[in-house]
Amino acid sequence: MFLAAKIRALKKAIRSWRNFEHRSELKESDDLRKRNNELDLIVESRPLSIEETTELQKNKIRINDLDRFRRLDLKQKAHIKWTVDGDENTSFFHGILKGKNRNNKIHGLSINGTWCNDPQLIKQAAFDFFSSKFKDKWPHRPKLTNSNIKVLNQHQKCSLEEPFSLDEIKKAVWSC
Fold first, then answer.
1. What CA–CA distance (Å, rounded) separates 12 from 30?
2. Which helix (H) or strand (E) element contains residue 116?
3. Which of 92, 82, 96, 77 is CA-nearest to residue 22?
């Protein structure tokens, strides 16, 4: 009991410290952004001094750091909330998936004019239908018997894979 009270007090202290830090980080970020806007207005009228340029760069770096810290804090809070609460939409999404599965299921098929509900017969009918679609229409194709077909030699084969030469490119461009 004593330990639980200490943990609650510690949690309360950390929460108040984090709220204070969060407010101070927001104020610092707003102040830096305002100062950068002032420096941007000065740039339009005159060039910035070296000190002003370094201040502008440091401000941008600090703003990016503060934004990164804020994003990490939000990410951690979201993760903790999801861990504690769980995903409340799980049953909704599972219901949608079950409905889609019901709609996509084949409940029956008309095979040779008769309605069939047996899954094995439906599978066999689907297999027969698609295997007939992918059969070779010419089981005995004519053979090429002409021996006068020109064949590339090894040098010609290699020249097909070579990159274009500058002369070939010039001929192609200037022939247009």
1. 27
2. strand 114-116
3. 77
Written as one letter, the residue type at 79 is H
Q: Calculate the alpha carbon distances from 10 to 13, 15, 170 in Å.
A: 5, 9, 79
110-122: per-residue pLDDT in tens?
A: 888 888 888 888 8
Query: For 23-65, what is each residue's pLDDT tens digit?
Result: 999 999 999 999 988 888 888 888 888 998 899 889 999 999 9
Annotated domain spans of the chain: 9-85
CB-CB contact of 39 with 55 (8 Å):
yes
Token digits of residue 166: 């500058």
- Phi, psi (deg, nearest 5) at residue 87: -90, 110
Q: Is there a contact between 97 and 84 (Cβ–Cβ < 8 Å)?
A: no
The whole-angstrom separation of Cα 53 and Cα 146 is 81
Of the candidates 35, 34, 22, 36, the one whose C-alpha atom is nearest the C-alpha of residue 66 is 22
In this structure, the number of other CB atoms found within 10 A of the CB of residue 48 comes to 14
Tokens of 121: 């017969």
Q: To which H or E segment does residue 109 belong?
A: strand 109-111
